[in-house]
Amino acid sequence: MKFEELKTTLIAAAKKAGITDYEIYYQRGSSLSAEALKDELNSFTSSADGGICFRCVIDGKQGYASSELLTKEAVEGLVEKARANAKVSQSEDEIILFAGSDSYAPLEAVRAQFPEAAELRRSTLELQKALYENSPLVGDGTQSGISYYEDEVYLFNSKGLDLSNRVCGGLRYADAVVRQGEEAESAFAFAEEQNKEDCFALPEKTVKTALSRLGAVTIPSGKYPVVIDGKVFKDFLSAFSPIFSAKNAQKGLSRLAGKEGEAIAASLVTIVDDPMREGSFAKTNFDGEGVATAKREVVKDGVLKTLLYDLSTAKKAGVESTGNGQKPSYSAPVSISPYQFSILPGEDPRDALFGLAKDGIFVTGCKGFHAGANAVTGDFSMESYGFLIRDGKQAEPIKSFTISGNIFELFKEIAALGDTVYWSMPSGFTAFGSPDLYLPLVSVAGD
Amino acid sequence: MISKQFAERLLGIAMSSGADFAELFCEVTESNAVSAIGSTIERANDTLISGIGVRAFLGTKTVFSSSSDLSEEGMLACAKAVAAAMGDPSTPQNVLLCERVFPNLHPTEKLTTDVDAKLRAELLLSACNAALSYDPAIKQVTGSIFGVDHKILVANTEGLYATDRKIRTRIGISALAANENDSQSGLAAPGSGCGLEFFDRVTPETVGREAARQAMVNLGATYCPAGRMTVAIENGFGGVIFHEACGHSLEASAVAIGASQMAGKLGQKIANEKVTAVDDGTIPGAWGSINIDDEGTPSQRNLLIEKGVLKSYLVDRLGSRRMGLPMTGSGRRQSYRYEATSRMTNTFIENGPDKNEDIIASIENGLYCKQMGGGSVDPLTGAFNFSVTEGYLVKNGKIAEAVRGATLIGTGAEILQNIDMVGQNLACAEGMCGAASGSIPTNVGQPLIRVSSITVGGR
């Protein structure tokens, strides 16, 4: 069934059930990707999927039900399931079905142009070949791939809201494995297909990074001056982004509760959330509740300007929704999350940050955020790798150490910011960006 | 889901351009969740996931296409996409399927999908209230109960046509303890490969109290010191150390392409001789158990390490082709959207020769990890990390004050040799494992063990 048909079916079923307040959210997507291993194409994948979610509000309580099975029977059945779920809810939060914002930022119309299968095979094999050609040390386990996707969302509700958005893009990744004697190291990097320069530079950059990790030594435990690569700190922003959620704040699960207007970071820190960031292919001008999105400063010169709100938390706090009530997938309930969320760059090139650290550590990788970072307490202890900084210059690689601290303290300890922002791969409409940052003293566990 | 005749037709099309093997995987998964904040039911939700994944092999080359469209045209389009990507499609091949029925080792009584959401909500509130009333310092509790009814159909050109049904139930309670200066959290999230009868064995109240107890311990704890230490890791979720330090590196997905530190080590001594480890998907009703894997291979008990010697890898169908080793019933996937690959089921270190009290008594200055959080690993280097969610210093052979914020890191090869004492209280605990084929339920487990030396991240 097409969306219009699904909509008609659900509207009729809701009417029959006597439900007057409801929302229909439909998402569908398709993708095409190829992967290479050794010197051949080992996998070719395509997908097409979609699902629909029905949310109703009965006596002030909401219920959700969703399905990928889009037969008439299954779709109609959602109405009764959602009604039963609404009956179970006891939440006192006011549920608001939104009639629409006054205006929405213009979105350029995009349509995915998936390459022909033969073309995708050819460019994937070229990418793989380029990885091997960069160094004789590149070996087994090296993989690369290119994928394209298109995603559409439709949002309709009984208050008259009727919105849609389509995003599409392409990504290529390289995972290079290098070996010297018994030692093996690897590096992963990605580039967006639309950025030809990045795509061209990807193989050399990835192999160079992997090679630079060979011969890593361990370091003694202690407190060190640390420069964190922006490519690593963007993952910190991602892991700790729940602290900016008004929902978490209102439920006592964020230490930023009640801190709007207060300094929460060093004065050089400004954090911006920009759903329409230039160059991103995951833009959206409305959120999962239909509220218009907008660029905003979340932290300005170290001061928390606003938390991120959806309709319900905004109502409770007596403010306007910031348009951050997102649906991570069609079936998921609305939850608060940022869009293109980044720390604005400073003025120092990386070398200048090394100069500030003088003798310290350059952290180029941290792993295990899902376990090692606690967004409620802010504590983190991360398995890390990187390089020594000696006399203000990048020196030999180091491994098997952790950096530990607390994100709320760390924000205040940032002493300098690099001049380039590094972005993560987008997930839905969300991506995180950060420049390099310099911290004068960080706890390190090593040998 | 799909008749035998239609499955034959789909596979015939998928084989029409030169593939030497084709399979299809069809799924209908009903799941439901209720969640609470404090002592209030926040939300109830029903989700139905359904779709098909068709895969073809030519040697070790694979083509895969998936679709949520289970109409005849949708499924035919999926099979045709596979054929077109493999080569130039010609006439569909003749495929003959024969239904195989596998015994159900994991009977269930009360499906969560058959039970009114109200009953699940009551169970959840019992857990939340038990956590809230544990101590006045418990300021917030969040929780959820999750039920899944996962029906699958697997058919392939070796003639297999089989179905399976996997039922799972899990509760998760997170408690926050706070005083004027600090807030700390605790988590308990047991689950089972059965229905709501799970709560006859594990009461919701026990789960709530356990989360609250952990939060209270952490509230009173100081930061864990950093450095190399001797560490004792408790049973249950402590088994995550083996899951990360070794399990992932034994998966054919990494071994077969040379991206694992364990490649080429079959028959070699890779661990201390006190270590015997097993992956067993046949344990009745266990969280990580399956009757057949997502490629239709019956699950089995795999002896991975015997007295320190590597005995087996975890091998899926593609891995079997790449490595020339038999399949081990390890082909798993989150849903039809993913290609199955080699994964763990219930993976644990067996009981050893040491008395638990001797293990603690042997540590002069170290760390006792009572509860562990999750972790991750790079199979290539074996470098892993995992977090300690409840830890205590050990001084002169006795458990002393609680410490928090610790992470353990190391490499698999080194740590397996350093497991120098293995106790006798084997128990497993439930987790979700994320990898290339998505997020799947797996059990980890072990008795109390001692690691003679490991890097503890703290401050």
Quick summary:
Chain A is an alpha+beta fold and 447 residues long. Helices cover 24% and strands 36% of the residues of chain A. The mean pLDDT of chain A is 95.
How would you describe the overall organization of this protein?
The complex is a heterodimer of chains A (447) and B (459). Chain A is α+β, with helices and mostly antiparallel strands. Chain A folds into two domains: 210 residues, PmbA/TldD fold (2-Layer Sandwich); 224 residues, no CATH class. In chain A, 24% of the residues lie in helices and 36% in strands. In chain A, the strands form four sheets. Chain A has a six-stranded antiparallel sheet with strand order 3-2-1-4-5-6. Chain A has a six-stranded mixed sheet with strand order 10-9-8-13-19-18, with helices on one face. In chain A, strand 2 and strand 3 form a beta hairpin. The model of chain A has no long low-confidence stretch (mean pLDDT 95). Chain B is α+β, with helices and mostly antiparallel strands and 459 residues long. Chain B folds into two domains: 216 residues, PmbA/TldD fold (2-Layer Sandwich); 235 residues, no CATH class. Chain B is 20% helix and 41% strand. Chain B starts with a helix and ends with a strand. At the A-B interface, strand 2, strand 3, helix 2, strand 6 and helix 9 of A face strand 1, strand 2, strand 3, helix 2 and helix 3 of B. Strand 2 of chain A pairs parallel with strand 3 of chain B, so a sheet runs across the interface.
- Going across the biggest sheet of chain A, name each strand in turn: 3-2-1-4-5-6
Number of domains of chain A: 2
Largest sheet of chain A: 6 strands, antiparallel
Low-confidence stretches of chain B: none
Helix content of chain B: 10-25%
Helix content of chain A: 10-25%
Radius of gyration of chain A, CA atoms, in whole angstroms: 24 Å
Shape of chain B: globular
Q: What is the radius of gyration of chain B?
A: 23 Å
Mean pLDDT of chain A: 95
The succession of helices and strands of chain A, N to C, reads HEEEHHEEEHEHHEEEHEEEHEHEEHEEEE
